[in-house]
Amino acid sequence: MDSAFSELADPDNAAWARAQSDIERAWSRSGSAAMDLLLKRGEDALDAGDSEAAIEHLTALVDHDPDFAAGWNARAQAYYSAGLYGPAIADLAQTLRLEPRHWVALAGIGTILEETGDNKRALKAYQASFGLNPHQEDVKDAIDRLEKELGGKAL
Length: 155
Description:
The chain starts with a helix and ends in a 5-residue tail after the last helix. The chain contains nine helices and no strands. With 155 residues, it is mainly alpha-helical. Helix 3 packs parallel to helix 5. The radius of gyration is 16 Å and the shape is globular.
């Protein structure tokens, strides 16, 4: 995984998309067909707009496999969709404890912090995410927006 993260972090690397895909594929593997099914059911419910069902499936997942970072991150997305920012932040923090290089979780923290008006900390979270994966246009846009709003990079 370290080589894939190195390839991904290089903004000039033409193979970044493959590295990103390899990392995301590794993150999505729980090692258990039952846990993978709970993740899929939770993601499907989230895609269908059913945050409550997603939270139920993903809570079962993190209860049964608390070391699976993707489960925590997916449940954080479900909590966020339900407007439950506190539990979402807690799950994103757990995702990062399990996988400190989880750029998606860092971007999620940035989004929540920005939405709650904590733009300085949001900018730091976005910058950390972008440092791991500089191919996120939405995160780059958020950084540019917040840097402009906050008067530059110096915080």
